[in-house]
Amino acid sequence: MIRPESPIRPEGNTTFLDGTTWCVARPSASQAELQRALDWACGIGRVDCSVIEKHGDCYEPDTIWSHASFAFNAYYQTNGNNRIACYFGGTATLTKINPSYGTCSYDVSKSEVSSARSLAEYKPRWMWLMCIGLLLFLYRRS
């Protein structure tokens, strides 16, 4: 159940992380704390929590820890993949172990799977254009 009247906003520092990481619920967090953080992530945090609802791919196991872990990670991955997006009032922690299981797939950062062209692919064209520009400049000057 989503209860946005008791929000827990992400807090922490903004240090970006190296490597692939996932955000999961802290095992020591209380169920009440996890529920508040889960409600915030699925409400104000705008995470698509349909996969942790009944009949969703990540509904089982039907535990607050499992559902919160999925929602925390979805928020973390879509909000910069940085520590501040994986705090949830101290109820979340980072892991380098992929928590995906069975049909439940936890997202990785969009930058990890980006199809954008690298700078090296643009460099030859850029250098060529600079050479032409320089030649035109020298030609007009003479």
Automatic annotation (TrEMBL):
InterPro entries: X8, X8_dom_prot. GO terms for cellular component: plasma membrane; plasmodesma; side of membrane. Its main location: membrane. The keyword Flavoprotein does not apply. Pfam families: X8. It is a lipid-anchor; GPI-anchor. It is found in: Cell membrane. Coiled coil: none annotated. Residues 21-106 form the X8 domain. Keywords: Cell membrane, Disulfide bond, Glycoprotein, GPI-anchor, Lipoprotein, Membrane, Signal. PANTHER family: BETA-1,3 GLUCANASE, CARBOHYDRATE-BINDING X8 DOMAIN SUPERFAMILY PROTEIN. This is X8 domain-containing protein. It comes from Brassica carinata. The lineage of its organism: Eukaryota, Viridiplantae, Streptophyta, Embryophyta, Tracheophyta.
